[in-house]
Amino acid sequence: MKSIKSVYKIGNGPSSSHTVGPYHAAHVFGKRYPEADAYKVTLFGSLAFTGEGHGTGKAIKTGLPGAEVIYNREVPESELPHPNTMLFEAFKNGELIGSNRIFSIGGGSIRIENETSDEETEVYPQQNFNQILHVCKSRSISLAQFIYRHEDPSIRIYLKEIWDAMQDTIRRGLKAEGILPGGLGVARKARMLLEKRCYNESADVTMNRVIAAYAYATSEENADENIVVTCPTCGSCGVLPSVLYYMQYDRGFPEEEILDALAVAGLIGNVIRTNASISGAECGCQAEIGSACSMTAAALASLYGLNIDQVEYAAEIAMEHNLGLTCDPVKGLVQIPCIERNAVAAMRAISSVNLSRFLFSTRKISFDEVVETMYQTGKDMNEKYRETSHGGLAEIYYADH
Ligand code: SF4
Question: What is the pTM of this model?
Fold first, then answer.
């Protein structure tokens, strides 16, 4: 398996392949040619056809300020090396000083033509959770220790950057108000959720309301095309940060332990990515929200100090009860049902941990089994429920209320 870094990427929402990947590419290219006084980025294929609606240009200009972005729809996809191709060019005093063709290959990942990236390096010899479990048990180490033994020493710095970016997104989202773009008229609700305490509210209700506010804050920032962290995707970016933010700021868990939990969540996402899919277009929302829910349950269970079987069971429960979840975003915007779904998944992750705490010794399904099931279910799913906006809520939505 590759590094857990492949699961977490910072970039503009609302789409991993159309905004996070291009932002990442722009950032990398800008670092290569800091002496340039002008940049030109030409988009081809899917990026050229849908990039304007998805905000690809804005994402590139965030990563490469001042860049000129051109949408070239003339080249047929059959003549492109990849459906999401970008040509980056750097100029100095009107002269071309460097160029790269970069491909956005999904989940926010990129590949630079004729180069092997760090992302493609295999970091873990293990391929599934059962193999990881075996190593951890035979050496009496935790999942976090297992991760730190395999990853580059810089992983802690990387996780801290990721956690800082997640927190920034929540804080921005909690301050923002107004209507989200795209024409659906969806109002931001995070701030209202955080402030609207009910009369005689119980501690449980407060916890759910506050975590939901954090999830809405992140997902609303994503829908507004602002900076988020994929975990594992943009559409599902509100689940994990909401629970971890609550645990640090409302429950007082130290940041060092939050970073360990983030690492464990990354490992779970990595197992799913390696053996199944984290793409709504490939396997429906179970692959996005189901994976995020599973990652969050594992993170929370490890934060509570539960044993490795309990962590696995929490992740398994969280995925199992998202099986079959379709992707049907209304008008193709990552708003309905996506934003609310992030908050619901955060609460489901907490319930999964509560069950795993008591019932792990009676479990019958392993994490690897549920991941395989999710993948097969996704493959069997009718195409209209896989991020096409041709089925489900996207089809039935009346738009008159
Ligand atoms: S419904 Fe589709 S777009 Fe929305 S979060 Fe789920 S997978 Fe992503």
Answer: 0.87
